[in-house]
Amino acid sequence: MKKSPLAILFLTVLLDLIGFGIVLPLLPTYAKELGASPFMIGLIAAIYSSMQFIFSPIWGKLSDKIGRRPVMLSSIFLASASYIFFSQAVSIPLLILARALSGIGSANIAAAQASITDLTDSKSRSGAMGMLGAAFGIGFIIGPLIGGVLMTNYGISMVGIVAAALNSLNFILAVFFLTESNTHAVGITTLFKRREKPTHADTSLLASLARKKTAYAEKFMAVFSSRPVALLMIINFIYSLAIVNMQVSAILLWKEFFHTTEQQIGYLFAYVGFISVIVQGGLLPKLGKRFGEHKLMVFGHIASFVGVSFVPFIPYDSMFTLGLVILLFFAIGTSLVNPLNISMISLYSYKQKQGQIMGFAQAVNALARILGPFSGSILYGIDHRFPYILAGALTIVGTLISLALFKYGIEALEPESEPAVQE
């Protein structure tokens, strides 16, 4: 494993996520202060994931063509600009614009994951993906704490300015230290080369639509050309849907049924983030070598089932005793499933399409994060236990699909080879 480039990549993702974590917990309250209705608050939350859904495949495919570095630099710069807009967002339209730009910029995670596949082999990849996941955990520990202090003492403008400053620092560090990992990239200058003029027949509307349809079909086939990749993409969607479906109602549940304060809720999120950092940053590489990706994927789903299904059934006075045990299972499960899913997708794919396939995986994840808040809020309105029952059912489905992956060996599926196992 090439440690130095991975360290720089980790720092780049970490700074980006701290900036994201600073802003995220304050969004619902600030949107409500601007006069947003509950539906509008949901829309503001969803616009971020919607932009990720659209642009993750674009950034990923672009990184395959022109390289990971220019994609990372462009997206980091855009994220920095989005937080400047956020600091001046005194109306709902400006807030929506800021979140949309932030979603586009943060969609670079596909390029970051593709960089990891460039720099690692099959034995070290799960650990590297775990380190990337640890960056998420650290970002969600540090970010909300900084955001809360800034909001209380200086107001929302300072929150946006500090987030923009962190991303600007991120951009400067990336300019000087982030190296290109994609040896197959042809460079950014190819985007400006003049293309041959199409013939008259090619300019027709039907021909244009046919070309687009063919291009989309090729992308779809590139992703689902092997059965294990298809299964992992399904796991990616249903697992993300389960977790987000549960998370969106967690704050309401804790406040209304367990009577926790906002400060206590912050401690609960920090607790989950801390466990995630330990598992993904320290334990996952060792566990992966000892047990293998397939077994850990199954165990992660089982742990997640415990961590989501029993939350609403905890006695109301046991949130910080029995509740912490349940959240421990939740933290362990998410810390295993998410990085292992991405790692296994890369192992079952082939090198020239890594960015495109990673982008597709992030788009699938973003789609689940768009739908999850709506399903969670609607089910919570019917019965506070329903979001968790659905989440538990989805993790059971994920467990069964994970068991089906055992018949596909990873050892023979190095990404340097041609397309992975095909049906």
Report the total helices: 15
Strand content: under 5%
CATH-defined fold name: Growth Hormone, Chain: A
Helical content (DSSP H or I, runs of 4+): over 70%
**CATH architecture label name:** Up-down Bundle
Low-confidence stretches: 411-423
Helix-strand makeup class:
mainly alpha
**Biggest sheet, open or closed, and with what strands and sense?**
none
State the name of the first-level CATH class: Mainly Alpha
Number of domains: 1
- How does the overall form come out from the CA principal axes? globular
Rounded Rg: 21 Å
In CATH, what is the homologous superfamily?
MFS general substrate transporter like domains
Distance between the termini: 32 Å
Descriptive terms for the model:
mainly alpha; Growth Hormone, Chain: A; 77% helix
Write the layout of secondary structure elements.
Layout: H1 3-23, H2 27-33, H3 38-66, H4 68-87, H5 92-106, H6 109-119, H7 125-154, H8 156-177, H9 205-223, H10 227-257, H11 262-291, H12 293-309, H13 322-347, H14 354-382, H15 386-404
Helix pairs in contact: 1-6, 1-7, 1-8, 2-3, 3-4, 3-5, 3-6, 3-14, 4-5, 4-8, 6-14, 7-8, 7-11, 7-13, 10-13, 10-14, 10-15, 11-12, 11-13, 12-13, 12-15
